Amino acid sequence: METLETEKFFSEEKPLLKPISDHSENRTKARRNAVVSVLLQPFQWLQMLSSRLNLSFVLGVVLVYGLNQGFSGSIFKVVTDYYWKDVQQVQPSVVQLYMGLYYIPWVMRPIWGLFTDVFPIKGYKRKPYFVISGVLGLVSAIAIVVLGKLPAALALSCLIGVSAAMAIADVVIDACIATNSINIRSLAPDIQSLCMVCSSAGALVGYATSGVFVHRLVLWLDMQFNWVNKAFGVE
Question: InterPro entries in the record, alphabetically (predicted)?
Fold first, then answer.
């Protein structure tokens, strides 16, 4: 009996152990899948917000908080400091006074919000004011860039116009955020997170590249002035 049991024991096929290389490959694949899933989570999160809210609303938050507040806000500070001190050659104390005037449109935010609610344009309360703020900011910025050294009062008016455009856009998107947060309360924390992420990312990119942009702008302006002087024969 013992001989038969022994022969049966040795005759049974044992499950083959997987090679060590297979285990290492599986671990590598698992790590890659984990990394890919982590990298895709922000995009999946944005897709979820776009599907449950509205794609235009998500794009508006990205543009206003990311491009307007974060990126343009940081660029605006660096550019205006350079413009007043190097182009206009204004004293630092006067520059501080001018910088204080930039905040007047931001102090008037309740008035902008009242305008959007009380005076709709063709039945729309938000979209026309987005367009108005964009046109106002674009015209004011182009006037500073193209005309160069303007009279101080006119230059200050243009820069206040840029600041007003940023403030109006901020008020309009904040109203949209409040409406969506009330209608879909479960997504209110996600909306606030989206705003903060866009603002922080835009500011980081803006402060990191502002010096390069100002340098390129100065070179471009020098080329334009030299071309104008040569065209009119001015030495």
Answer: BT1, MFS_trans_sf
CB atoms within 10 A of CB 148: 14
- In 132-147, which positions are buried (b, 16+ CB within 10 angstroms) versus exposed (e)? bbeebbeebbebbeee
Tokens of 150: 């303007």
CA 180 to the chain's CA centroid: 20
State the pTM of this model. Answer: 0.72
Distance of CA 99 to the CA centre of its chain: 22
Q: Is 121 helix (H, G, I), strand (E, B) or coil?
A: strand
d(CA 140, CA 157): 8
Buried b or exposed e, range 34-72, using 16+ CB within 10 angstroms: eeeeeeeeeeeeeeebeeebeeebbebbbbbbbbbbbbb
**Phi, psi of 121, deg, nearest 5:** -110, 115
pLDDT digits (tens, 9 = 90+) for 186-224: 888 888 888 989 888 888 888 888 777 766 766 666 665
